[in-house]
Amino acid sequence: MRPAFSAQQRRGFWLRTLHQWHWISSALCLVGMLLFAVTGITLNHAASIEAKPMVSRRTATVPAALLKSLGTRQQGNAPLPRAVSDWLEGELEIGLSGRQGEWSAEEVYLSLPRPGGDAWLSLDRASGAVEYEGTDRGWVSLLNDLHKGRNAGTAWSWFIDLFALACLVFCITGLLLLQLHAGQRRMTWPMVGLGLLVPLVLALIFIH
């Protein structure tokens, strides 16, 4: 019959387990936390950071043979036919994969927002004339948009969810480790309480 674990053995087991989860989650979160911390500062001072948007404009004309593949759709939202989309991507050096267009009898209009910039494309259905305009707002805007998950796509959205989960593991294991060490560190809970009290007081007093 196996002897029951002593309190010291149980404490040692939980310390080892929590330390392992804590360092693994911290390693996974490290680069992401640095990115989100830096962009937290840039977002907080967005009005003070000068941005110089760069605008590029391009034109093209879709060949008549490809123009016929647009068919007879008169309205609604739908992607461009694959052949037209591939031709535009090669001609204008842009990405249109998965982009929905706004169809009307006269044109197909595509809004092409992305992190750190914006763009649009208009295709005249009668003449095949294409107008494209892209705006690049710089790397600070790019990082800020990634922080918010703005126009970053499904893969980045999943990354943010998984990163947030890893951060939760990091914080919860850290809290449990604080509890285990609190007996030898009398300032543990006052410091934790201060971390809660400061943002709470600021929110109650200064945010209206």
From TrEMBL:
Transmembrane helix is among the record's keywords: yes
Matches recorded under InterPro entries: PepSY_TM-like_2
Keyword field: Membrane, Transmembrane, Transmembrane helix
Transmembrane segments: 21-43, 155-177, 189-207
Superkingdom of origin: Bacteria
Name of a matching Pfam family: PepSY_TM_like_2
UniProt-recorded name of the protein: PepSY-associated TM helix domain-containing protein
Protein source organism: Pseudoxanthomonas spadix (strain BD-a59)
